[in-house]
Specification:
- Helices cover 51% and strands 15% of the residues.
- It is an alpha/beta fold.
- It has a single domain, classed as 2-enoyl-CoA Hydratase, Chain A, domain 1 (Alpha-Beta Complex).
Amino acid sequence: MQQIQKPYVSYQVLNNVGTIEFFTPQHNSMPKDILAQLAENIVKAGADQNCKVLVLKTAGDKTFCAGAFFDELLLIQNEEEGLAFFSGFANVINAMRKCPKFIIGRIHGKAIGGGVGLAACCDYTYATTEASIKLSELAVGIGPFVVSPAIERKIGKSATYELAIDATNFRSAEWAMMKGLYNHIFPSIHLMDLAIEKIAFTLSASSIQAMSEIKKAFWQGTENWDQFLLERAAISGKLIVSDEAKSFLSAFKKWK
């Protein structure tokens, strides 16, 4: 079977269940264009009357999402370019929180950095026992400034701070479920997909207006995130152009 190589973001609807899937060959890391397409498709799904519930997933059977695409980070030359890149993550988070449809997360493997942020922005999240998590930003000279508000909202300040400080070690899927990032974990992708299919079917027959109001109520207090996350993106944009961050990134790529 020929391995998929081209990055993509796809959106499809079947029986009122929308599915957004993305893929990049670099462990589903996210360059700027994939972030933009992801945000666009989430907005599209939110406005699609044929879609009553949304599943967010990535392709492959190993890493769910490795966060920012390091090759692109190394090319950033100034704070403006840094802001533009990290604003992509802000746009995805804001699209997810404002989407009127429940978003079910399908976390089939490791989630790193921005991948943890995606999981945290899902309204209900399924994972496998392979779906360990790590916030690796400090290890490359920056910090999880854009994604941490979403993560903190889901698992609390103490657990988020722990992840931000211990940036080189993974936490298990069991740890993530205990903290509230995952709602359920499964020993296999197959069993996880059966559970997702079941809840998606149930939600697709539920009141779309009621679901929208429930989501709005539980995201209350984040109305300032359009501006707030851009301010956070500016912090990351400033740090990423430092000599220290460039050195850390280059060393990490060589080690990898």
